[in-house]
């Protein structure tokens, strides 16, 4: 099994010269003195630390491509001919368009969503900033939640601090929240995420008091990496500014040698890093109480692909603190900027992590303690993924967090605006085959016109793209749910899955295909 080969990858724009490659090192079987090739080590000879990250930064999202021994494709979905849950078992009533895909999460003041998905955290990366209007409006008109990620205030060029050194004004954060709310109609919410720097800078105080944010997300980590968030900056002045604001900036922009290297040209960018967070139970409970006292209606927690110990902490402490949603993000992850080898080789893969989460939630429930609402994240992109995640984590998993999958239609729609204006060569053949106007190209354009009237022409086309993609996920989910005879999300159960391999059955606790429903089958035969 080729799990993941190091030393060359399209994410780094590198490749091997040889057809034969050593499987562990990824080095060419025959490495020649005088080679003019382009493997990782060849490029690192010139560019050093640049080879840590997918590139070009700010233009790509990268997803690790390690092939794990067990993943969600090793689960299949049961379809039935018997019965119906949530509707009368009548062919005229139990139709797939009648399936209700709505979900909700929260302890008291619940958030409802039209479809059981929401966006990954879109924070301080250029991809998030440049495409925010498309992402935010798309999520709002689709009736799903949107996560505004970490460091948005901290890197805002227009950031103003008050006399106490806390955020007084952040035009970028104001823009992000206002953009979502313009089309928000009561379904979903915008969650503002906080890391170490955000907490120090008083972001929660600012967004709750000044901007009316109701949901704050505390962050322990993510599936893509086990360090804090990073961005790159291509200005010495900007690098010095971010270091002054308290961030870790590498190479150190205050060192004369690095200043000289930047001015001379070989050093092209600086990296801004967030600090590592460190957790303890008392501090976590204290922070939850503090944010609640600030006026937050809901507090959620995002945790990463840590081992079972940290997962247990997240689940138990969320239970004790009354957390409204715990998002569990598995490896390998995909992101605008994470160290590539870390993304590929760090952390517990999604299906393993989610299987652990179910086991721990079950144990907590048997002890009579409340189990927090759960969301699963980590490499999901299609309606069958949504169903499998909901079923694997049932009844605790309420929704699926999608990162790159929901960003793609936003970026494609945005670029369609450019192509329609004649930029970058105009419409490519892959798009022109659908028509020459946005009304012809986007099948849901007139659907949105009926809803928004003439204002539909003001919607960013990336938002229209996200609406269309969410519509595809919704209808596909309706079809799968109807086939498994579940006419509402709460009816989905683990028995609606079976494992294709005995190893997958061992990892997940889902019955192996040859054992699923065996007892019922034999009872029928033996009757």
What features would you highlight for this structure?
527 residues; TIM Barrel; eight-stranded parallel beta barrel; alpha/beta; globular; three-stranded antiparallel β-sheet
Question: What features would you describe in this structure?
Answer:
With 527 residues, this protein is α/β, with parallel strands linked by helices. It has 4 domains: 1-52, no CATH class; 72-222 and 279-408, Aldolase class I (TIM Barrel), CATH 3.20.20; 230-273, no CATH class; 410-483, no CATH class. The protein is 38% helix and 14% strand. It is built from 19 helices and 19 strands. The chain has an 8-stranded parallel barrel with strand order 5-6-9-10-14-15-17-18, surrounded by 8 helices. Strands 11-13-12 form a 3-stranded antiparallel beta sheet, with helices on one face. It has a two-stranded antiparallel ribbon with strand order 1-16. The longest helix is centred in the C-terminal third of the chain and has 23 residues, at 461-483. The two termini are 45 Å apart. The model has no long low-confidence stretch (mean pLDDT 95).
Quick rundown:
The protein is an alpha/beta fold and 527 residues long.
Task: Show the helix and strand layout.
Layout (H helix, E strand, L loop, with lengths): L39 H8 L14 E2 L11 E3 L25 E3 L5 E3 L3 E6 L3 H17 L2 E4 L11 E2 L5 E3 L1 H13 L6 E5 L1 H5 L2 H7 L5 E5 L10 E4 L2 H9 L3 E3 L5 H9 L5 E4 L7 H14 L3 E6 L4 H14 L3 E5 L4 E2 L4 H6 L4 H17 L7 E4 L5 H10 L4 E6 L1 H17 L8 H4 L5 H4 L3 H8 L8 H23 L13 E3 L2 H7 L9 H9 L1
Parallel strand pairs: 5-6, 5-18, 6-9, 9-10, 10-14, 14-15, 15-17, 17-18
Antiparallel strand pairs: 1-16, 2-19, 3-4, 7-8, 11-13, 12-13
Helix pairs in contact: 2-3, 2-13, 2-17, 8-9, 9-11, 12-17, 13-17
């Amino acid at each position: 099994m080729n799990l993941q080969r190091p030393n060359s990858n399209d994410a780094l724009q590198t490749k091997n010269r040889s057809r034969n490659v050593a499987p562990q090192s990824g080095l060419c079987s025959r490495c020649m003195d005088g080679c003019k090739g382009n493997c990782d080590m060849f490029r690192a000879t010139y560019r050093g630390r640049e080879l840590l990250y997918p590139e070009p930064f700010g233009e790509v999202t990268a997803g690790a491509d390690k092939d794990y021994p067990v993943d969600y494709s090793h689960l299949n979905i049961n379809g039935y001919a018997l019965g119906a849950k949530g509707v009368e078992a009548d062919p005229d009533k139990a139709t797939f368009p009648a399936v209700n895909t709505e979900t909700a999460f929260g302890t008291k003041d619940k958030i409802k969503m039209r479809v059981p998905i929401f966006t990954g955290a879109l924070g301080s990366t250029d991809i998030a900033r440049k495409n925010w209007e498309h992402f935010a409006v798309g999520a709002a008109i689709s009736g799903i939640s949107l996560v505004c990620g970490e460091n948005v205030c901290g890197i805002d060029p227009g950031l103003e601090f008050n006399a106490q050194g806390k955020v007084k004004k952040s035009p970028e954060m104001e823009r992000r929240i206002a953009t979502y709310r313009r089309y928000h109609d009561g379904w979903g919410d915008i969650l503002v995420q906080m890391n170490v720097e955000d907490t120090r800078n008083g972001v929660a105080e600012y967004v709750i008091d000044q901007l009316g944010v109701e949901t704050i997300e505390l962050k322990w980590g993510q599936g893509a990496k086990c360090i804090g968030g990073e961005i790159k900056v291509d200005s010495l002045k900007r690098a010095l500014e971010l270091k002054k604001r308290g961030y870790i900036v590498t190479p150190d922009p205050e060192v004369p040698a690095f200043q000289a290297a930047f001015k001379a040209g070989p050093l092209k960018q600086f990296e801004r890093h967030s600090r590592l967070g460190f957790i303890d139970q008392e501090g976590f409970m204290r922070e939850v109480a503090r944010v609640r006292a600030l006026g937050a209606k809901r507090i959620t927690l995002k945790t990463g692909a840590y081992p079972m110990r940290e997962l247990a902490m997240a689940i138990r402490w969320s239970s004790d603190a009354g957390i409204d949603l715990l998002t569990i993000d598995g490896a390998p992850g995909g992101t605008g900027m994470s160290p590539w080898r870390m993304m590929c080789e760090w952390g517990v893969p999604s299906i393993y992590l989610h299987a652990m989460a179910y086991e721990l939630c079950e144990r907590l429930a048997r002890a009579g303690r409340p189990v927090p609402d759960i969301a699963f994240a980590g490499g999901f992109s299609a309606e069958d993924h949504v169903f499998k995640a909901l079923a694997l984590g049932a009844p605790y998993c309420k929704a699926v967090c999608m990162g790159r999958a929901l960003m793609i239609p936003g970026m494609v729609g945005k670029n369609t605006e450019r192509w329609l204006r004649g930029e970058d060569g105009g419409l490519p053949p892959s798009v022109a085959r659908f028509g020459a106007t946005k009304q012809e190209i986007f099948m849901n354009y007139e659907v949105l016109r009926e809803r928004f009237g003439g204002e539909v022409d003001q919607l960013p086309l990336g938002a229209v793209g996200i609406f269309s993609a969410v519509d595809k996920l919704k209808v596909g989910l309706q079809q799968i749910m109807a086939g498994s005879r579940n006419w509402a999300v709460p009816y989905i159960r683990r028995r609606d899955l079976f494992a294709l391999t005995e190893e997958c059955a061992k990892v997940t606790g889902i019955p192996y295909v040859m054992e699923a429903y065996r007892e019922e089958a034999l009872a029928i035969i033996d009757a």
